[in-house]
Amino acid sequence: MIDIHNYFKNDYEESRETFRGLLSKVQKVWPEAKLYQHSIGENEDNTIDIIYAEATSSNDKVAMLTSGEHGIEGYAGAAVIHLFVDQYLESIDPSITGVCFVHAINPWGMRHFRRVTENNVDLNRNYFLEETEIPYDLNENYEKESHIFLPKKPVDLISKEKTELYEALSKGMMNEGYKGIKQAKGMGQFQFDRGVYFGGYDEEQSASHIKTWQRHLLEQFKKVIHMDWHTALGPTNEVTMVISEKHGKEEEELKASYGMDNIQVFSPDDVKGDSTNYFYELRESEFSSTSLFSALFEFGTFGTSREAELREFTTIILENQLYWEGTDHPESREWIREELMNMFYPQEDEWKEAVLQEARVAIEALLKEEDILQSSAPNQTF
Ligand SMILES: [Zn+2]
Which residues sit opposite 189 in a β-bridge? Predict the structure, then answer.
């Protein structure tokens, strides 16, 4: 039996401390492994922490696991990296394989239990090959329906806010409003810096830093396998792989080769600034002889029904409004805080167990197929 409480931490500092402590375990396999810390933003103590080791004799391949691109989602991601270090290192051949573990790409967001950075930026809409590619005027529908998505006044009584928002969103389903926010969710928006799904006016420090690591790995290794851990999307308590069509395989083909139930392929035409898509673009433009696999792995919470989708938008919109405008109603604050946790970091044991179990499925499916794990990997169950 595994003790889930070893893996899921209560705050950013505790999670980071645990991560830093993994270095000695990694060094047992890669004696030269090092911990790198990089401060992001105003508070110097908000750091991206990276444990990195090159292969001990030939840099054939590397496993990169990243967490916390969306702040609050990093708690589950950190749990998965911890699980990986505890259970899979022995199944890797260090002479030809390196590792790169990243804790909290968005440390401010993780510390403050928000998805976005301290500049309100959804980091996964912020990775562009050239700064000139930032699509400032992308989203007309968002602009038309901005009364729904932009905070203008403090959060009222939660029952009132919920009713109004459900009404506006349901009505919006018939017109641009709903399309607008659905599109904004996928594409980001680059005009309203206090709105939800803001992709930024400029490149964020976090994105710049991760880009240097992406480049470094493509330079150093013949093959890079990247798993970026997230929460919320997809069927409840299941893992979903989300991968750029730049990878080059169809959904069905991927399902067959990796043996996973939930796989979504996205087009860069619908999703702007995604870090995994950027990884493929960088490889294509400068490292065409390096092989790359890069995908997001999402642990589902609310589910995939229309009702779940409404609940998701309501949570995201009210959390953003609360952050910028506050509220005079403590119960509104409490409801929003709880609902945000339900969406991105549920506290039920059942969900946490599912995360670890499903992570194992994804890790084994991927890393065996990609020859990182030798097939003698442990097969423990919970
Ligand atoms: Zn995410």
Answer: 198
Ligand 1 center from residue 167 Cα (angstroms): 26
The token pair at 46 is 């908000």
Average pLDDT of the residues in 219-223: 98
Domain count, the chain: 2
Spatial contact of 296 and 242, defined as CB atoms under 8 Å apart: yes
- Burial (CB count <10 Å: 0-12, 13-18, 19+), residue 323: middle
* CA of 230 relative to ligand 1 center, distance in Å: 4
pLDDT category, 145, cuts 50, 70, 90?
confident
Taking residue 305's Cβ as centre, other Cβ atoms within 10 Å add up to 10
Report how far ligand 1's centroid is from the alpha carbon of 65 (Å). 14
Instruction: Please tell me whether residues 227 and 192 are part of one structural domain.
Output: no
Q: How far is the CA of 96 from the centre of ligand 1 (A)?
A: 31
CA distance 239 to 43: 33
Q: How far apart are CA 322 and CA 155, in angstroms?
A: 6
CA of 70 to the centre of ligand 1 (A): 5
| DSSP structure class, residue 371 | T
CATH (domain of 264): 3.40.630.10
Task: With a cut of 50, say whether residue 94 has pLDDT above it.
Answer: yes
Work out the mean pLDDT of the chain and round it to a whole number. Answer: 92
Does one domain contain both 16 and 161? no
User: Taking the model in full, what pTM does it have?
Assistant: 0.94
Task: Point out the least confidently predicted range of 170-184, 216-230, 275-289.
Answer: 170-184
Specify whether 288 is located in the same domain as 352.
Answer: yes
Q: How far is the CA of 184 from the centre of ligand 1 (A)?
A: 14
Neighbours of 380 (CB within 10 A): 9
Structural domain span for residue 170? 135-200+304-343
Give the three-class secondary structure for 132: helix
- Asked if 317 and 359 sit in the same domain, the reply is no
Tell me, in angstroms, the distance from the centre of ligand 1 to residue 231's CA: 6
- Distance in Å, CA 30 to ligand 1 centroid: 30
Asked if residue 224 and residue 166 are part of one domain, the reply reads no
Task: Please check whether residues 70 and 191 belong to one and the same domain.
Answer: no
Question: In terms of domains, do 312 and 364 share one?
Answer: no
CA of 74 to the centre of ligand 1 (A): 9
